[in-house]
Amino acid sequence: MLNKIQEIFTSMKNKILSSIPLSCHKQKTLEDICSCRTPQMGGFIERCGTCGETVAHFHSCGNRNCPVCQGAQQAKWVDKQLDNTLPVPYFHVVFTLPGELNPLVFANQKVLYGVFFKAASETILEMSADKKHLGAQPGLTSVLHTWGQNLQFHPHLHFIVTGGGLSSNKLEFRQSSKKFFLPVKAVSKKFRGKFLFYLKQKFESGELFLPKSEIELSFDEPRRIFFKNLYAKDWVVYTKKPFKTPLQVIRYLGRYTHRVAISDSRVICFDPSSETVSFKWKDYKDNNQMKVMTLSAVEFCRRFMLHVLPEGFVKIRHYGLLGNRNRDQRLTLCRRLLEKAGLVIPSAKHEKELKPIQHICTCCGGLMEVIFSTPHRQLLNFPSSA
Fold it and tell me: pLDDT value at position 351?
């Protein structure tokens, strides 16, 4: 049985391909969403040894933009990240870009998403190193999201930041207060300055593609005014309440890392006759009121496809204590220093006894046995002997 979003894409596939220009990468995403957990993806067939009931199971597509697949991927990621937590509070910090930058960012996603990560991470790390704030190196995990509740283009970065960090001489783990240890207004100003500094570099190097709406930025004076206006704006950076336990942090972050533009639970209905989709959305500009938006199915799919990231782009990145290079050694040192300070290291990981998965027949309760299988993405049909 198809889920709601998969049903919409499957029903509208031909119209999407004929009316929306899609790159090869996005066309593959469309194909994957339509084929996920269907016979086209291959799978295996089981038969009950008691009553003979026969059931087919189909493979997932594994595409990171597929709403069907992300539950299993999230669970794997969460389990892997539990070993990288520390027994300290964690803060959630969100960086957003002004809407004026959206056309330029969308036309240069790989380049300017990279600038976005660089400017935001450097802002936190440099300010944290200042002794008047923390005087230490915290751990950062960041996740890129590109959508708003209405599915329009709205790039923003979610950062999970350790409530403390390792001193420069590596002899002390300095813990922060219960409040976020950096002044948010100062973070916003520094982030704005860094992003625009790197953006100017990209203009000067000729790396940026200018869409039609931004073509005047190829001239010096319009570009000067463009930057002047961006410097004059307040850029939005905000923090959310801290987390209490490492497990809470990772589970929460897991929801962000493996979230796609819209979940099935927000889709109210798809009407094939009128080719419209209605979904719930939260209007942040109207006191967070929950509302219902109805779009043509093609427009719904177009907006969804806005958020398919460039092929191979890394949307989850780690910095500071959690940077990939020598991370295990740094975390081991931090735990040792925290233990010396009298902090008990809670176990974030729940040990599970690994047992082979056995499917039970829903008809008689007997054991199911695999009688036929195909490789991933090879059509699975019931063999004549089944």
Answer: 43
